[in-house]
Structure formats: C-alpha cells, structure tokens
Amino acid sequence: QKGAVRGQVSFYRGDIPSNLPEEVARKRKGLDSQWLTTLPLRLPAPNSENGFIREEQYPPLNLGDPESGYLTESNLLSISLQIGQDWRVIGLHLGLSYQDLERIQYKNKDNLGALVLDMLFLWARGQRNAGPGAASRLVAAMIESGRRDLADEIEDIVNLGRKKYSDSLKRVGLEAEGSSLEEVQQ
C-alpha cells in the first residue's frame, strides 16, 4: 500500500463512551453529549509531492579511498554496537562539537544505540569533503579515546575490504600483480 491513507477522526469531551459496540463507535457521527466533531483525514503517500516532510535523505556512505580503505553503513553499525557510555569522548576525538553531541543526546534521549549510530553517521557525513584517510582518522580517534579494541577491529575491516577490492581488480584484469595498491600497503 503505497497510496494515500483516508479515514476520519472523532473528538469527544471526556472519556470515550465504553458501552457502545466497537463497530458502532467506529462509524458513529451523530449527536452525543460528549461528541464534539468528526473530521475527515487524509494522509498523503510518503513520496508524494504534497506528502510528509521527509527527513533529509543521505546518499549511501562511501567513506574512504582505495589506499586507506572503505567503511560502509553496516561497518559503522557494527562498530556502534560496541560503544557505550564513552560515546561522548569518542565524538570529541572525532572532531564533533559539544553542540553537535548535545543535539544528538537530546534527539536520542533513551536510546544509546541510536545515539552512537547518529554520532558516527554525523561524523561520516562530515568526512565526504575531508579528503582521503577517513578510516585512518576514525582509527586514530578510537586510539585517542582509549578504545584500541575498536581501532584494531576497524583496521581489520579496512584491510579485508582493501584486499577484496584489490582481488576484484585483479579478477577483471584492471590491476596487475604487485601494482601500486599493494606497494602502498607495504
């Protein structure tokens, strides 16, 4: 169901009458001492021109480069699940402002997982124009925050991704054995 949703909503003063059968209560529009009004309701389709104000759509995360490696959305999700109350220290080492961290905390008051993921994605979006080495900057921030375990995991993810990237280039014949990518790694 991708189209608009139509319905109605009724407003009553006080408690909703409980002695009516559900079917009658749902369709009732008539006079009642507690009934105020019934209004038609139409919710537009989420993608329609006059639809909901959508949250900003972000292009897919393409964090990194062939030399320093890539991180994906799922990589950041995996990393975020291992960050706890030290999220703020990590955010500061990533270069996020106190205001950004406060806004993230306010937006995700009761959900630490969403808070951490929001922080990592805010940082990642800021890295789009920061040039190569985003993965290296994330590793450095984790080390500075005392999370060597996460720094090692990120390095492993990046190294595996770099190897897969190099292997795929070799498979399609775009890279010869011992090319510049492998030399950069040495």
TrEMBL record:
It comes from the Eukaryota. PROSITE patterns: DEATH_DOMAIN. This is p53-induced death domain protein. It comes from Nothobranchius kadleci. Residues 72-158 form the Death domain. The lineage of its organism: Eukaryota, Metazoa, Chordata, Craniata, Vertebrata. GO terms for biological process: signal transduction. SUPFAM superfamilies: DEATH domain. Pfam families: Death.
